[in-house]
Write a structure and sequence with these properties.
Blueprint: E1 3-10, H1 14-25, E2 30-34, H2 47-52, H3 54-72, H4 88-113, E3 116-119, E4 121-124, E5 129-133, E6 139-149, E7 153-155, E8 168-169, H5 171-174, E9 183-187, H6 191-202, E10 206-210, H7 222-235, E11 238-240, E12 244-251, E13 254-261, E14 264-270, E15 272-275, E16 279-281, E17 314-316, H8 327-342, E18 356-358, E19 363-368, H9 371-377, E20 381-387, H10 392-396, E21 403-409, E22 415-422, H11 425-437, H12 442-446, H13 457-466
Parallel strand pairs: 1-2, 1-6, 2-3, 6-17, 8-15, 9-10, 9-15, 10-11
Antiparallel strand pairs: 4-5, 5-6, 7-16, 12-13, 13-14, 18-19, 19-22, 20-21, 21-22
Helix pairs in contact: 1-4, 1-8, 3-4, 3-6
Length: 479
């Protein structure tokens, strides 16, 4: 007879491991199934995010940013350095150490919270039975009262530029280059493309980013997006909008990419090509035909607002389901589902308050509604925007690019959205998140005493500017 659990989680990425830990903390007998194995043959938790996504990319972004600062910014601070060189092997070693520390930390958390770790690929059978195929091919089953599906996602491959693991790579391959490509092509000007393009541009690559759509960062507030595009172009990123890739040809260590834009057919030759056109949910081979799980036309698992699938007692979270493919979104869904299983059937997640961040330099971050969304919905709103150029702390940091923008309901004064392009935007936007969750008004923030000098003062100033009361910049002339 197979072992029985209250909860079996399939996948130990951010959504899965958080769901497993939370379920165990609530007193539920919990197991987590994970197929990812290290080069040493050990089970590795953390999924894409910790192993080949969020964490390693941020490690490389930090290293490359420091290298660029030594090349171009130290002199402004009166610091003279000579013959600074980048050690790619050393940079990658640091990245891998960070990955190891974090993935090992999850194993420690599983042990501390009593989560049973099961190695192998999980497949959902009928009646909430999970079949596990180990990496040695051995098959076993575990039974569960509840199953949480958290298998995550993988990069999308496109026919014009098939991944060959060398000249043409996906985001995973781009995190493991052993030298700086002289000329680097990136397909896709989304979050991943901009971040990876930034890393290698700082380290010396000539970077060309080809984006099929005509709008830069369509999900972001367009005023912020336009400011970011201008800044990135000035930095040296060659971002070509409206450029649709039609084919490629690999010859030796070079790849020729063919594409069309408004001027017609064109081609570019690169040393490396990164394909970053999106991700798709991992569902192939994960469900038996009689499991009862329903997928939509894009391969996502069909769920309701509480992440319940069409099978009672089976839930799906993270990149497997609708909504943004963000680690923190998956984590909160994991917490929600664990609490529902425990008996809190009314718990809900606020999908209207999920922050988005692009870890370029400067960073781009936003939460809540964009100006375009408010216009489309016919909502009357006020805009407050303050540049970092008016902020003393940003001046001291010699980093004044960008601004903070807030959108406020004209009738109720409630904050509707916050959009930031600038230094530490990822940290500052959390103030907008808290304000949205608590239903704060612009006046609430206006009346707070912010520490000076801090970057956070720009948030208060933007809220003041929404009512034409800014103290650090000249206000609009009253009509």
């Amino acid at each position: 007879m197979s072992e029985q659990f209250d909860v079996v989680v399939i996948g130990s990425g951010p959504a899965g491991y958080i769901a497993a830990i939370k379920a165990a903390q609530l007193g539920l007998k919990t197991a987590c199934v994970e197929k990812w194995v290290s080069d040493e043959g050990k089970v590795v938790n953390g999924g894409t995010c910790l192993n080949v996504g969020c964490i390693p990319s941020k490690a490389l972004l930090e290293s490359s940013e420091r290298f660029e600062a030594s090349q171009h910014e130290f002199k402004d601070h009166g610091i003279t350095v000579k013959d600074v060189k980048i050690d790619i092997e050393g940079m990658m070693k640091r990245k891998n150490t960070i990955i190891g520390n974090l993935t090992g930390g999850i194993a420690g958390l599983f042990k501390a919270n009593g989560v049973t770790s099961i190695e192998g690929m999980g497949k959902l059978l009928a009646n909430k039975v999970v079949e596990v195929t180990s990496n040695k091919g051995e098959v076993s089953t575990v039974e569960a009262k509840n199953v949480i599906l958290a298998m995550g996602s993988i990069p999308v491959d496109i026919p014009p530029t098939p991944n060959n693991g060398d000249t043409i790579v996906d985001s995973t391959g781009a995190l493991a280059f052993d030298k700086v490509p002289k000329r680097l092509g990136v397909i896709g000007a989304g979050v991943i493309g901009l971040e990876l393009g930034s890393v290698w541009r700082r380290l010396g690559s000539e970077v060309v980013i080809l984006e099929a759509v005509d709008t830069f960062l369509p999900a972001a507030d367009q005023k912020i997006a336009k400011d970011a595009l201008k800044a990135f172009t000035k930095q040296g990123l060659d971002i070509r909008l409206g450029s649709r890739v039609t084919g490629s040809e690999v010859k030796g260590k070079k790849v020729t990419v063919n594409f069309t834009d408004k001027e017609g057919e064109k081609s570019e030759v690169f040393d490396k090509l990164i394909v970053c056109v999106g991700r798709k949910p991992v569902t192939d081979g994960c469900f038996a035909d009689d499991s009862g799980i329903q997928l939509d036309e894009r391969g996502f698992v069909h769920v309701d607002d509480q992440c319940k699938t069409t099978v009672p007692g089976v839930y799906a979270i993270g990149d497997l389901v609708r909504g943004p493919m963000l680690a923190h979104k998956g984590e909160e869904e994991g917490v929600m589902v664990a609490e529902i299983i425990h008996g809190d059937t009314h718990v809900q997640m606020n999908y209207d308050a999920i922050p988005s961040v692009i870890y370029t330099h400067p960073e781009i971050a936003w939460v809540g509604k964009t100006e375009e969304e408010l216009k489309s919905a016919g909502v009357k709103y006020k805009v407050g925007q303050v540049p970092f150029a008016a902020n003393g702390r940003a001046m001291a940091a010699n980093d004044t690019t960008g601004s903070v923008k807030v959108l406020v309901d004209e009738e109720t004064d409630r904050l509707l959205g916050m959009h930031i392009f600038g230094l530490h935007a990822s940290e500052l936007v959390q103030q907008g998140l808290i304000a949205l969750e608590f239903g704060s008004s612009a006046e609430d923030i206006q009346m707070m005493c912010y520490a000076h000098p801090t970057l956070s003062e720009t948030v208060r100033e933007a809220c003041l500017a929404a009512d034409n009361m800014a103290l650090a910049i000249a206000n609009r002339k009253k009509r």
